[in-house]
Amino acid sequence: MLSQQVGNDRTILSLLSTGEAWVHLPEDVMFAVPGLVDRPTIMRAYDPQKEEEEQLPPKTIAARVAVLKKIRALEKEVETNYQSVSMKIHRILEDAPWANSEDWQEITTAEILRTIGDKDVLVQLCVHKFLMANHDRFIAQTSSFLETQKFWVRPRQPLGDLEAVSRMLAVSDPALDGFYKKAKTLVATSRMDQTSSSSPAGRANISITFTSEEQAIIRVLHDFVRSTRSTQKDPYVVPVATVMKRMGLSEGKVDQAVVHKLLIEMGVVAPWDDPVTRERALLCVPSRTSIPAPSTSTSSGASLSPEEFYPRDIVEHVRHDFKDLPAFVIDDEGAQELDDALSIESIPSEPGSYWLHVHVADPTLKIHPNHTLARQARIQYTTSYDIHSTTPMIPSAFMYDGLSLGTNSRNGLSENVLTFSCKVNELGDITDYKVRAGLLRNVHVLQYNQVDKLLGLPARSQFLPFARKANLESRLVTPSLAPAQVEELRTLYNISLKFVANRFLSNRFWFSAPTVKVTMDSKPSPPNSTDLTHPNIFEGFPQLTYEVGEQAYDEIGARRMVAEAMKAACRVASRFCRDHNIPAVRRTSTAPDATDEALADVLSLRDPDTYIPYEDIMKKKVGFPQGDNQVSTKGHWVMGVPDGEGYLRVTSPLRRYADLVSHWQIKHALAADGTPVQPLFSHDWMTEFAKEMTTKEVALRALERRHHLFWALKYIDRWRADPRNLAEGPNPFDNLEGIAIRESSADATLRRNTVRVIIPQLGVRAMLELRGADEYARRPMLGFRVPVKFLGLTLGTKPELGVTLRDV
């Protein structure tokens, strides 16, 4: 098994039992046996220059034969031991409460192995095969599975529904005919009336009632609409496909996108339903193996219960009063979780140097590590900023009770903060730092666009491919600030430029890729009904805006000012923990993987902000290793942070649980006021938490990408379905281009060759289908552009845009 990294895209090359080489994604690897085959043999088994030739070189064939012999020998050992291992697992399932629960549960192969009392890799592989084979009960988690070996355990009701529907299908139960008739009526009515520009709303259709058997069928269809692994069988495929085929309402392949559309047309879920984010509930299934947070005590030694808040401010005796120093809270219009503010102080004795203060909201003023809110925050891990709704990590009612910056100021009260200060010289170097609990008395809440206007900076441009440019200036209210405060903002902006210039001189760079941002004018959108007794009649659809951008164009002006200050605060936090020997989980990254020649080329292509066009990164085959979370002071290459310093995220405790942990750890040290004290969270606890962080972050990022793509394609689908859009004005689909971001690959299942591309005009990734030998010969190489045209799209939990080559 070999791997290749280009940009942020990594692929794996595996040898199949047939002797063929297969290029696939890292997520497709479900189990690995280290050291089964030595590396020299692996390297001989693949010759990229000869792979497409009819006859492979003899040394390559010999190496593959050697690998296959090892694999088949292992398979025979597994066959010999599988039966006895499976019997032990069956006995475990008889007594385990998690195996027969009303709620979703989580299990790992390691837990099963501990119960069996055998950690041998062969037994581990047998356990893995057992859980994969019993796919009706155990679902391999969709992210980081190779590292975690975690399975979700299906609850009793979905299992009962699946068994009931399968039984109905086996005996042709008359209840099925009644369901088919109602479904056809509902779908026919829905397809006759699909146009509405009104606000979204829904009401129960009491003219139709679903029986208990019909509700079970609906739940099975609903449960089928979820993301699954192609490497594990799906127990829903056969019963759902059979129901859909007998209903006769769809043609072709029955996938979760087709079933989701049926549920919309039946009035079971709303037209604006998002099936992707429903999966977040599984990502938030509590883990039984997580190490609990440390218990918290008051100064008298009494332990705090999960319902009690801190009875007092534990760092009140060391809080620094910033008095009338202006602190600027800068965020987007409508932002709700305001968790940071900036201040600046000149240093008369050191012209050109300044103290930059980053004040961060202090939810740990009240919440201790074992509070109910803290435990829930750990499960959810982060605030979910979905397009159709926002789910705060800390409940809004509590957050507005003096935690979100600006809420106290509006009532004439001071703001409690944790302040990370750095002394910055003319070169953008951090020459000194301070970390203090702080008190703010002069807070100004501003918007990014307002600050840009005050400083005379260009407004952030918008590219709206489906609409005229929005007029942001018409509703912009210029805040009333004293000239001295405007100058302080200007100094803050100039310091951000020094930070960027410093990274440029350090030969750092990052790529800038097209992105899409879909926004909903009014959210949350109306939820689905949880009562399946009646279908619903839905009307209207939320108003959406489709915007294409790039990070290089987005992080400018006031946005850059804030972003650079936050990076500096994270460096200060890491230095503090390093110098006080406090365990902390830092974000790390290593230098790009590329030849010296390629690195020299891309460095020459940087803009002054250190960005390089995505296509140039691809052409030069520069790979960025995936970032990691570690309890060490390893550097963060992209941020310009050297080894020995580290980068500790602390600036978003209202919306990231990891930042809350960092605040508890730092404040525990501050409260000691110089007295030696054991850290609140031990090194071992932090090491385990780093793994938990990585697993959560990878899964949530993957879900977020699919969520944004779903809404982008939903917008495109609705736009193309309205004939007025194609008749009026220029068509955004007329001159599409695709930039190849992955080498071409063969899809054996669909018998086609494809290339993963990104469409800069739309800001989304797409699958370029190559039809025949002629188009395959015209396939684009990595980083190169090719004219493409719209082919189709798929919604559901695995949204995808399809394109094909366009003649010019």
From TrEMBL:
UniProt xrefs under Pfam families: RNB
Domain (RNB) ranges: 319-672
GO annotation (BP), single: mRNA catabolic process
Superkingdom as given in the UniProt entry: Eukaryota
Coiled-coil residue spans: none
MF terms in GO: 3'-5'-RNA exonuclease activity; RNA binding
Gene Ontology CC entries for this record: P-body
Protein name: RNB domain-containing protein
Organism for this UniProt entry: Phanerochaete carnosa (strain HHB-10118-sp) (White-rot fungus)
